[in-house]
Structures are given as structure tokens and as C-alpha cells.
């Protein structure tokens, strides 16, 4: 076999000898790999911390008392009670009423943006709407307590019916906070509904409203459900609004005008009090935290599974 | 049949007219619903500026907190926020960008990669107060860092890591494959390709995502309260091991005092914080519009 020129062989030999990676490069790539694995370390840290202290908690408090108990009295001696349901009820109260207000508005906003708005209008409106999610929650907390409760709800419904700390004020502000989550995720789902479906409906004489409500919304239903799950996860995990505006009295009720304490509200109360390590109070923080973590984890995973299935359906 | 018939009446009547009317009206109903959240927030913002502009002054920015409303200021909050922000950026951003590069450029396309991405998506959904008790248990207690700036920054760094990675991955994936192919074909190594072509192209997107994550950390309250930053701080931090407080926690403290003067102070604090956070968001938006390449 002869080569084209004597230099070609030489060049090829040189190229073969030249390392594909420079020596420094494998160090860099090793570093990047380590970075890639840090997220597992974070997850492991969360899981070990939560479960480690939760195990310590269940040395002091029986598991059945915690899971089935309906009275929570962790900070006032002498009789401590650790039944999680009062705190879960507080959280569910806020979830229920914030979704009641946010779902119709968020869905309407999604329908407007996806089915009615001119592309230019949507390009302006959507970022403005999404900015609502970027407002720090301590600001929402301030609004809930001072403006919504003191300036609107109490004068409007009567100071005897509306306590200073109440679930409704927190829920109303929470609804504004989760509006963009519902609107944005639902709108994405609606935008993914194939054009053919709409045009078939128009061809049959449907109006724009009928196309939106009877064709697009049902077709995007799984995405809408996912948006609500994500919104619920945000409500459950939100701390400042409920800690400031809903109160710190555990209460087993779904009444929006009651003073309630949520799981997050309790955790913040303990955090402010500087509980000593090794006490049941300190470990109760992690038992409640684990409960909260499990709720939000299931909701987030549920939403992801639904979104993924939905994407496959139209591809 | 005559050639010139009466022009046909195309206006619908009866049920069809009602359906058309409902459809036309629905546009305004849906539009109104879209604006309601924004309008409510705008109204609240105006009210906050009205209530909060009164105590707003140079003294308010340079005074330490106080039991007396007329002497209370944001000094330690502002300094604490700046210290924690800088430390958080230093801790989180290199690892976040490194993770994003690994995911998009170097990780083998296998189950592990899927797992990494799923894990990040779930971490992004973990409530901030959970990061707070993690910081309390691990950094404050286990590593004995106390309620210090570094403990707070480590907590916030872990909190913003997932969203920064997700935003950076998205930005890097926007860089067209042809850029990489061209560079590799000219004999560049994979790292040279990433460093000289992929990263510069993705930088505006990475910056935007990073700034948004930082603005979330700047407004974070619950996680830092758990770490113990809610104390009364009347000195300037000198190092990362010092105790601290931040602007949102000051706002929280003033909000919970049942007194009109402190309510006004909280409103002033909100004005200061929102100017800072809106500034960050504006910068993010400008970078996205001005430097976007792909």
C-alpha cells in the first residue's frame, strides 16, 4: 500500500500520538461529574435529616398518636399532645379555599391567553402574570394581614365574625400567588391541543366559547389537573402567608373564618422559639417536616407523571 | 326564479344568536379574569407605597433596628442580605453551571441521567421551609456554624441550586448542535468546544435564570428564620461567621407588631426590597432581550 505522499503517513502518525483530551481535561470532566452528582447528595441530606430526627421523635411519641390523633398541643405545658390532624386540617383549609378562588380565575386566564388573546397581547400579558409568582411571600403575608383582613374582610363581614388571624385572608392572597402556576401550566396544555380539533368544531358550527369550553378544556384536562396539583403543592409548602395571617392556634376545621395553624406555620413557630436540640419539640419539627415533604413530593410526582402522559398522547 | 333576489339576512336569530352573544361576551369575562390578579396586586402595591413612603428616608436605610418605630431602620437587614447574596452566589452558581454542563454535554444518555433530571425537578418543588430545617440540623447544629451568614448562605445555595441548574440546562440546550459539530470538526476537544462555543452562546440564558434564582433567594424568609436569622442584630457583619438578619425578616418582624407605625415600617421595607428585586428582574429581562442569540 502506497500513500499519497510521504508526509501523509507522518501526519497521521502525529495525529494518532496527540491525545484526544488534554491532561487537564479529564480533571475538568471529573469535576463536572461531581457537580452532576451533588443533587443526589442534597436529596440524601434531606432524606437522612428528616427521617433521622423523625425516628427520634417516635421514641417519645407513639406513631398511632401522631397519625390518628386530632389534637396538637406541642408548645404549651404541661400536657403535650401530638396528633397531626389539627395541623393537616389547617393546611387543607388553606388549600381548599385558595383553590376555590384560584382555579376559576386561573382557568379563565389560561383560556383567554390560549384561545382569545392576540399573540402580541399574550406576549405582554403572560410575563406580567408570571411576575405574580416572583413576589416574595413575606410581601403577600403583609398584604394578607394588613390589607385583606384588616381593611377589607373585617369591615366587610364584621369584626365579631372575622377574627384577627383567619384562614380566609391567607387563602385569598395565596390564590393570587398560585394564579400564575395554574394559568401558565394550563395554558401550555391548551396550546398543545392540536389545531384539527378546534377546526373540526368550528366546521360543525361551534362558537369560540363552545370550542374553548367543550373542546379545548376537556382535551387539555390532564394538564389542567397537573397545574392544580402543582398549585396545591405550593400552597402546602408556603409558610410566611399562613404564619402571619392565619394564626397559630391548631384547629380541626375547614371554616374559612376560623383561626388555624398549618404544618408550615407550626414549623416556623418552633423555629422562632429556638427549641433546644434533643427535645421532643425540636424533633417534632422534623416529624411535621417529613409529613409536609411526603405531601409535596407525592403531588409533584403526580403532576410530572400526568404531564408526561399528556405529552405522549398528542405526539 | 328571479335574477335579483332579496339580499339574504345573515344575522342569526333565536338560539344561534344567543350562542353567538355568549361567545362574544365571554371574551371580556375571560379577559377580566386574567387581569384580576394583576389589578389586585397593583392596588396593593399602590397602597403599600402610600403607607410606606412616610418613614422612608436616609435614616431608615442607615439605622439599626429599634424598639421605637421612629428610630428603627434597615441597616443590618440590608448588609445581611448583601453578605448572604454574595456568599450564596459564590457557593451555588459554579456548581449549578457545572451540573448543567455535565447534564447537557458529558453525561452518558442513560438511566442515571434521567434520574438526575427527575431528582432536580423534585428538589425544585421542595418547600423552602424544608431547606430551612435542613440548614438548621446540618449547618447550624451538626457543623456548629451557628446562625451565621455562612450557614444561611449554604442553606439558600442548596435551595436555589435545582432551579438554577434547570434554567441553565434549558439555556445550553438552545445552542444549536451545529455549533458543537463545527468546533469538533476543526479539531477542538469537547471541553474546548464547551468553553469557547457552547458556554458563550448559552451565557445570556444562564445569566437570566441565575438572576431570577438569586432574586428568589433575596426574598426568602422562612428558610432563614429556621436557620436562626430572626435575632436582633445591631452591628455590621465583619465576616461570614457573624450572626445576621435580612431585609425580608425585618419586614416580617415589623408586620407582626400590632401597631400602625410598625405597619408603615414594614411597608417601607417592602418598597426597598421590591425596588431591589424588580431591579434584578428587569436586569434579567434586559439581558434576555439584548443578548439572546438562539
Q: How are the elements arranged and paired?
A:
The complex is a heterodimer of chains A (315) and B (294).
Chain A: H1 6-17, H2 23-60, H3 63-68, E1 72-73, E2 81-82, H4 85-116, H5 119-131, H6 137-157, H7 167-191, H8 195-203, H9 208-219, H10 221-237, H11 240-245, H12 263-273, H13 280-313
Antiparallel strand pairs in A: 1-2
Helix pairs in contact in A: 2-13, 4-7, 4-10, 5-7, 6-7, 7-10, 8-9, 10-13, 12-13
Chain B: H1 14-52, H2 58-62, H3 75-106, H4 111-124, H5 128-142, H6 149-173, H7 177-185, H8 190-218, H9 222-227, H10 247-256, H11 260-291
Helix pairs in contact in B: 1-11, 3-6, 3-8, 3-10, 4-6, 5-6, 6-8, 7-8, 8-11, 10-11
Note down, in words, how this protein is organized:
The complex is a heterodimer of chains A (315) and B (294). Chain A has 315 residues and is an all-alpha fold. Chain A has a single domain, classed as MetI-like fold (Orthogonal Bundle), CATH 1.10.3720. In chain A, 75% of the residues lie in helices and 1% in strands. Chain A has helices at 6-17, 23-60, 63-68, 85-116, 119-131, 137-157, 167-191, 195-203, 208-219, 221-237, 240-245, 263-273, 280-313; strands spanning 72-73, 81-82. A two-stranded antiparallel ribbon of chain A has the order 1-2. In chain A, a hairpin with a 7-residue loop joins strand 1 and strand 2. Chain A is flat and about 95 Å long. The two termini of chain A are 53 Å apart. Chain B has 294 residues and is an all-alpha fold. Chain B folds into two domains: 9-52, no CATH class; 58-291, MetI-like (MetI-like fold, Orthogonal Bundle). In chain B, helix 3 crosses helix 10, helix 7 runs antiparallel to helix 8 (190-218) and helix 8 (190-218) packs antiparallel against helix 11 (260-291). The radius of gyration of chain B is 26 Å and the shape is flat. Chain B starts with 13 loop residues before the first helix and ends with a helix. In chain B, 46% of the residues are buried. At the A-B interface, helix 2, helix 4, helix 5, helix 6 and helix 7 of A face helix 1, helix 3, helix 4, helix 5 and helix 6 of B.
Amino acid at each position: 500500500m502506497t500513500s499519497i505522499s510521504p508526509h501523509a503517513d507522518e501526519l497521521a502518525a502525529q495525529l494518532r500520538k496527540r491525545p484526544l483530551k488534554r491532561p487537564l481535561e479529564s480533571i475538568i470532566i471529573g469535576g463536572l461529574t461531581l457537580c452532576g452528582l451533588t443533587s443526589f447528595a442534597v436529596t440524601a441530606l434531606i432524606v437522612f435529616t428528616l427521617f433521622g430526627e423523625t425516628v427520634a421523635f417516635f421514641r417519645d411519641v407513639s406513631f398511632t398518636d401522631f397519625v390518628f390523633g386530632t389534637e396538637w398541643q406541642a408548645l404549651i405545658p404541661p400536657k403535650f399532645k401530638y396528633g397531626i390532624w389539627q395541623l393537616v386540617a389547617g393546611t387543607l383549609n388553606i388549600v381548599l379555599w385558595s383553590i376555590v378562588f384560584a382555579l376559576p380565575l386561573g382557568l379563565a386566564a389560561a383560556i383567554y391567553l390560549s384561545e382569545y388573546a392576540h399573540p402580541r397581547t399574550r406576549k405582554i400579558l403572560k410575563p406580567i402574570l408570571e411576575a405574580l409568582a416572583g413576589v416574595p411571600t413575606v410581601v403577600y403575608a403583609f398584604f394578607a394581614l394588613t390589607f385583606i383582613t384588616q381593611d377589607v374582610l373585617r369591615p366587610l363581614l364584621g369584626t365579631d365574625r372575622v377574627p384577627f388571624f383567619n384562614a380566609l385572608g391567607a387563602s385569598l392572597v395565596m390564590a393570587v400567588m398560585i394564579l400564575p402556576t395554574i394559568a401558565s401550566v394550563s395554558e401550555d396544555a391548551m396550546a398543545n391541543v392540536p389545531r384539527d380539533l378546534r377546526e373540526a368544531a368550528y366546521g360543525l358550527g361551534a362558537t369560540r366559547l363552545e370550542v374553548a369550553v367543550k373542546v379545548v378544556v376537556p382535551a387539555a384536562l390532564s394538564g389542567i389537573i397537573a397545574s392544580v396539583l402543582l398549585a396545591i403543592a405550593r400552597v402546602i409548602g408556603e409558610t410566611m402567608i399562613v404564619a402571619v395571617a392565619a394564626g397559630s392556634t391548631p384547629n380541626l376545621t375547614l371554616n374559612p373564618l376560623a383561626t388555624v395553624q398549618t404544618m408550615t406555620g407550626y414549623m416556623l413557630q418552633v423555629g422562632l422559639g429556638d427549641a433546644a436540640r434533643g427535645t421532643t419539640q425540636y424533633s417534632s419539627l422534623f416529624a411535621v417536616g417529613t409529613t409536609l415533604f411526603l405531601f409535596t413530593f407525592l403531588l409533584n410526582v403526580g403532576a410530572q407523571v400526568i404531564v408526561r402522559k399528556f405529552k405522549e398522547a398528542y405526539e | 326564479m328571479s335574477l335579483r333576489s332579496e339580499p339574504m339576512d345573515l344575522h342569526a336569530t333565536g338560539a344561534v344568536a344567543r350562542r353567538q352573544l355568549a361567545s362574544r361576551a365571554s371574551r371580556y369575562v375571560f379577559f377580566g379574569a386574567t387581569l384580576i390578579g394583576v389589578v389586585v396586586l397593583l392596588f396593593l402595591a399602590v397602597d403599600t407605597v402610600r403607607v410606606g413612603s412616610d418613614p422612608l428616608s436616609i435614616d431608615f436605610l442607615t439605622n439599626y433596628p429599634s424598639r421605637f418605630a421612629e428610630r428603627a431602620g434597615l441597616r443590618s437587614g440590608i448588609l445581611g442580605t448583601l453578605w448572604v447574596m454574595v456568599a450564596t452566589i459564590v457557593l451555588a452558581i459554579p456548581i449549578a453551571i457545572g451540573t448543567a454542563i455535565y447534564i447537557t454535554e458529558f453525561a452518558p444518555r442513560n438511566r442515571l441521567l434521567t434520574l438526575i433530571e427527575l431528582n432536580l425537578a423534585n428538589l425544585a418543588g421542595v418547600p423552602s421551609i424544608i431547606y430551612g430545617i435542613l440548614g438548621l440540623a446540618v449547618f447550624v447544629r451538626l457543623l456548629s456554624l451557628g446562625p451565621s451568614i455562612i450557614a444561611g448562605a449554604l442553606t439558600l445555595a442548596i435551595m436555589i441550586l435545582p432551579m438554577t441548574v434547570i434554567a441553565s440546562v434549558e439555556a445550553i440546550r438552545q445552542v444549536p448542535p451545529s455549533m458543537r459539530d463545527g468546533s469538533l470538526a476543526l479539531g477542538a476537544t469537547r471541553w474546548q468546544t464547551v468553553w469557547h462555543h457552547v458556554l458563550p452562546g448559552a451565557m445570556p440564558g444562564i445569566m437570566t435564570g441565575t438572576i431570577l434564582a438569586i432574586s428568589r433567594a433575596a426574598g426568602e424568609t422562612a428558610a432563614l428564620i429556621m436557620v436562626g436569622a430572626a435575632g436582633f442584630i445591631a452591628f455590621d457583619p465583619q465576616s461570614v461567621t457573624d450572626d445576621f438578619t435580612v431585609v425580608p425578616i425585618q419586614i416580617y418582624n415589623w408586620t407582626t407588631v400590632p401597631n400602625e407605625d410598625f405597619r408603615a415600617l414594614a411597608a417601607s421595607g417592602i418598597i426597598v426590597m421590591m425596588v431591589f428585586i424588580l431591579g434584578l428582574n428587569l436586569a434579567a429581562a434586559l439581558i434576555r432581550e439584548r443578548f439572546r442569540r438562539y
